[in-house]
Every structure is written in C-alpha cells, then in structure tokens.
C-alpha cells in the first residue's frame, strides 16, 4: 500500500499580507482546511484520488470566496460562464466542460463527460444539454451572485478592462488575483488524479475560455509522471501547455517534479509574462506548490503528516 497525499489551490495572484484582514485570512484558511478534509476523508478510507479531487473541488466550488461555482466572476454580459476539467492518471481518461452556466458543480459535470459520454470536452449549449441529460444539479442566477464580484464587474465595465479574476478592495491599485480552484491527489493504490474549476476572467467576452478546462494546459494527470492543476493568466498557460510540459520534462528529460516545476513556472512562464502558479504531485507523493505571483492560496496534506496551509510568498 502506498501512502496517500492531497494538495489544493484557491488561486494565485497579488495576495499581500498588507491588504489582508485577520477575518479574511481566517476565512480562507478555514476554506482550505475544509477542502483538504473533504479530500482526505476519501483517501483515508482507501478511496480513489479521483473521488478525492472531485470532493475537494466541490468544497471550494461551494465556497463563495473562490472564483468557481458559487462566487464565479461575471462575464461581459453579466453572466457566469464556468470551465472545469478532471483527469485520471491511471488510464489517462479525462473530462472537461467550458462556458457552462447555472451548474452548481462544474467539476462533477466534467466527470460526467468522462464517465457518461464518449467525449472528453463539451462546451456551451451542447454541454448544457448534456448537463440536463445526466441530471446535473442546476442553481438559479441568485445562487451564483456575490456582491464583491458584482462590484468588480461594474468597475471592469466602466474601465472596459478584462480583469483576471477577483481583485477585492484593491482594484484601483492593480491588485490581481486568480481565484480558480484545483486539487491533485495520490491514493493508496498508487493512482494520481487532478482537477481544476473556474469562472475565468471578470468581464470576459466572446466565449473566452482559459486554461483550466484544457487537459495538458491547466490540468493533467499521468501515473508515470505527475498530477498538476494550474491557476493564473490562462492565455499564457495555454500557450505554454504548462501541465503537460511539466509531465514531459519528467518523462523525457528525467527531471524531478521540483526541477520540472522550477523550469516551467519560474523560468518559461516568467519569460513570456505568464503570472500564476500550480500545484503538483508525483507518484511518490512529493508535492510542489510553485508560483511566480505574490501569493497563492494553497494547502497540502500527506498521510501521517500535519496539514500545510499557505497564502503568501
Ligand atoms: N486560469 C484561469 C483562467 O485563465 C484564471 C485563474 O486561474 O483564476 O481562466
């Protein structure tokens, strides 16, 4: 039997201690703890990393602090269009959805794509039809409404900018945050899994889709190498094929998880201006949580070890 491990993120960006209140910090810490607990409960019982990833992400999607599920950011037309993906490292199976609305847990819908369709990636109205067919849980617009996100949206509209995620009180100072959520896990059977879920960017237009639902860019899992979930400026993560690049550096160049993460997050992404970070785990349960931004909401837990929770650099 292997030992299990899980890691999660709640987005990266300009997260500064100086702009954080003790109440906000406590709320984020609790949310990260809750998500780790949700995943660990599965792993502890000998459950699969795939189930653990889904449950940890559901916990984050249900929390309005994060830009996924409840609390997803507003599009240019005042809607919520969410993206999610999940992947199993054991058999390289995966599922993804993009541009779905009113779905309580997009991560579960991406799982349904994998398990109940012959496809990998469904988008827009077709994905919504599929959601109805598999009886996904729908919520009305009120459920997704969060005042703070609405105010950001109004500011973004006024300045005609597209904001990479929620910016809280410091929009004017240019604070940037990427509130996407994600999880990676290794179970006692030795299987890796990864998942990511997001509302994308505030004021996004034209059906814009980021890296989060793209297997290989924002999410990837392969038992031979690693499990990865990304957060950051999606356009750069797509162009850099970030998650698969880390896997490739391990598979073809023999780099360790840490070495591969350093090359991609701290060098390749930085060179093209790609701000953000990721959570990564290899088949031994080693965990890396690299980011090139000011902070990243993150937590990890290995079997028989204390939980780690981090927010700032
Ligand atoms: N990567 C996400 C996107 O570009 C944003 C985020 O990480 O918050 O849609």
SSE order, one letter for each helix or strand: EHHEEHEHHHEEEEEHHHEEEE
Under CATH at level 1, the class stands as Alpha Beta
* CATH topology annotation: Glutamine Phosphoribosylpyrophosphate, subunit 1, domain 1
The tally of helices reads 9
Strand content: 15-25%
| Separation of the first and last Cα atoms | 34 Å
CATH architecture: 4-Layer Sandwich
Describe the biggest sheet?
A: 9 strands, mixed
Helix/strand structural class: alpha+beta
Name the CATH superfamily classification: (Glycosyl)asparaginase
Shape assignment:
globular
Note down, in words, how this protein is organized.
The protein is an alpha+beta fold and 313 residues long. It has a single domain (5-312), classed as (Glycosyl)asparaginase (Glutamine Phosphoribosylpyrophosphate, subunit 1, domain 1, 4-Layer Sandwich), CATH 3.60.20. The chain is built from nine helices and 13 strands. It has helices at 22-44, 49-61, 106-116, 124-133, 141-144, 147-159, 234-239, 242-253, 257-272; strands at residues 5-13, 82-88, 93-100, 121-123, 177-178, 181-186, 192-198, 219-221, 226-232, 276-282, 287-288, 295-302, 308-312. Helix 1 (22-44) packs antiparallel against helix 2 (49-61). The longest helix is centred in the first third of the chain and has 23 residues, at 22-44. The model is unreliable at 166-174 (pLDDT under 50). The chain binds aspartic acid. The site of aspartic acid (ASP) has 15 residues, from strand 9.
